[in-house]
Write a structure and sequence with these properties.
seven-stranded antiparallel sheet; five-stranded mixed sheet; elongated; alpha+beta
């Protein structure tokens, strides 16, 4: 399977200027491709082909006075920007036809130089490389300093350079992993576990373990509010407002990084210790419309479950999702009697049939495991088949998933 490994980049002043030119050229080519399709639609003509767009928007455009500066960046960056536009339209039409999973996507929009996130992609034919001193050498940009937090398990097939809202630069490498090697690194185990996700405790396991919710957003809320107030008081268009905006973006980036780190550590621990894992298919979108919306977003259940999905596929584990309407909190895990719905403030209850006293979350976790029907053979292999891996998409246009960092 394909995974992405992201590392922090530290370009110098001239390299930041070169990256800004590359971001700008890629953005212009993308916008030109979107306009060409919109013009063809308004004129009632068929959409121009990818080859025609490449010839008109890149090759011929470089010879004109208005677009001659496109030659200052790598041609691969421009070609990949066209590919992103093509992919965006394919996803849009597939969404209209109902052949694409997930929520409906809108038509590609024009990108702005003021967009918080900018990205360019280099494929193998761009002749980028990692130097002997550990720097990332990019065409027409130079050798950029990289903070290597770990070793790449294989030779990357492409690299995407990203500048986020906080002004940080990252290099995202696409790696083809070897499933056999990954599964060999995992310890053999016959344990299975059920997980009940919540807000008071982030997760309660069927073995009784309770994992507290870090509440990262709640703890940083005071600092975020202060930074946002300072931003709102700055004059629009001023340098001070730009500095304040960057301060707000960095504060939010710290929250997102801390939450992602928590999810990675917990998901890796559960995958390592258990052969089979059962979770609920939670209606996160619906829950995010209630008065608990801020706490639901702070928990990040969807991101956590996505990490469990691709790690289970990568390391040969079994992940089972049970239906969201399964009455796990209403059913006695001892006798199976359904005792009816209970308010959220009821954290402990006694079964009316057998008299067993239940902790609400622990009982739900046991029921999640039982409903999943997890079973492991004597050799440690899962009897129930695994799930489809999470999508691992490359950097694309706005409005489309970019996947998660590998762990």
């Amino acid at each position: 399977m394909q995974l992405r490994y992201a590392f922090r980049l530290y370009p110098n002043t001239s390299q930041r200027a070169a990256l800004a030119r590359a971001f700008g050229c890629a953005r212009v080519v993308f916008n030109d491709a979107v306009r060409a399709r919109e013009d063809a639609l308004k004129a009632g003509q068929p959409f121009p082909t990818a080859g025609r767009l490449s010839r008109e928007l890149i090759t011929e455009a470089k010879r004109t006075k208005e677009r001659s500066w496109l030659g200052e960046v790598s041609a691969v960056v421009l070609q990949q920007s066209l590919r992103d536009a093509e992919s965006a339209y394919r996803n849009f039409f597939a969404s209209l036809k109902g052949t694409r999973k997930g929520p409906k996507t809108r038509a590609p929009r024009l990108k702005s130089r003021k967009d918080a996130r900018q990205s360019i992609r280099f494929t193998a034919n761009a002749r980028w490389n990692i130097t002997g001193s550990g720097q990332l050498s990019l065409p027409k940009i130079g050798a950029v300093k990289v903070k290597w937090s770990r070793t790449l398990p294989a030779t990357p097939t492409s690299v995407t350079v990203v500048r986020d809202a906080a002004g940080r630069y990252f290099a995202s490498f696409v790696i083809d992993t070897d499933p056999a090697n990954d599964q060999a690194r995992m310890p053999q185990t016959d344990r299975t576990i059920g997980i009940d996700l919540g807000l008071t405790h982030f997760a309660v396991l069927s073995d009784g373990t309770k994992i507290d919710s870090p509440r990262i957003l709640r703890r940083a809320e005071k600092k975020l509010k202060k930074a946002q107030r300072e931003l709102s008081r700055k004059q629009k268009g001023s340098n001070n407002r730009a500095k304040a905006r960057l301060k707000v973006a960095r504060a939010h980036a710290k929250v997102a990084d801390a939450r992602r780190n928590f999810h990675h550590q917990l998901s890796s621990k559960l995958i390592s210790e258990n052969q089979g894992i059962a979770v609920e298919d939670l209606p996160v979108v619906s829950l995010a419309r209630t008065k608990l919306a801020k706490s639901v977003h702070d928990a990040g259940w969807s991101s956590f479950i996505n990490m469990l999905e691709y790690k289970a596929e990568r390391y040969g584990r079994t992940l089972v999702k049970i239906g969201r309407f399964t009455p796990t909190s209403q059913t006695c895990s001892t006798c199976g009697a359904v005792d009816g719905p209970k308010p959220l403030n009821v954290r402990e209850w006694t079964c009316s049939a057998c008299g067993t006293v239940h902790d609400r979350d622990h009982n739900a976790a046991i029921n999640v495991k039982q409903a999943a029907g997890l079973a492991v053979s004597a050799c440690g292999a899962p009897v129930r088949p695994g799930v489809i891996p999470a999508q691992r998409e490359e950097t694309g246009s706005h409005g489309f998933s970019t996947g998660n960092q590998a762990a």
